[in-house]
Amino acid sequence: MIDSSVYFLKKKLKGSNEKTAEHLDRIKSKVKSSTEVIEGLLNLTQMKQPRLEKFNLKALVPEVLSAFDTPAGIKATQSFPEGDVSIYADHRLLGLAFKNILKNSIEAMGGEGSISVKIRVAPADSVEISFSDTGPGIDIEDIDKIFQPFFSTKAGGIGFGLSITRMVIDRHKGTIEARSEKGKGVIFIIRLPYYFNKDKEK
Fold first, then answer.
1. Are residues 62 and 39 in the same domain?
2. Helix or strand or coil: residue 8?
3. Domain tally, the chain
4. How far is CA 114 from CA 12, 75, 141, 157, 180, in A?
5. 37 with 96, same domain?
6. Burial environment of residue 32 by CB neighbours within 10 A (0 to 12, 13 to 18, 19 or more)
7. Which of 12, 121, 148, 192 is the most exposed place for a label (fewest CB within 10 A)?
């Protein structure tokens, strides 16, 4: 509602005082930040248990990547094993988790670099998904804080994306870790159980 009002005022006041336009832009920016905080809190406090369904994990990664308006200077590559990688998981929640990681990487690289997404069938009936980027990396003292709510290494960052991602992975009985060296990018590694049960195939 407020955002729509700002748009209306900017349209009506087009060509008038530059200071007025500047203040309206600030209001719009604050509204966006407030909306992100509210949405983040809702995601954290109202997240339901995963609704498990069988799907091919290899199809989810390109689906999430296609949702981004990736800058021309950023190259995304994917590496998957042969055949389907079918798991029982919540398609929507995993998509949200992957989206948050990719958004974090794209913003960190500032329009230039590369992202690599790999899926690997791991031992003990699990699958490993890794996301690596060529961004500025994270200080060693911050690496354990990045999954905490309200913590962000970005100026003006809200700090909800990765905490929501961790919650999603936790709800799937999986694990997530981040590895980084300052100036050498970040790699996020997710390990998920298949939730495979032959009785479900009958």
1. no
2. helix
3. 2
4. 42, 5, 25, 22, 15
5. no
6. exposed
7. 12
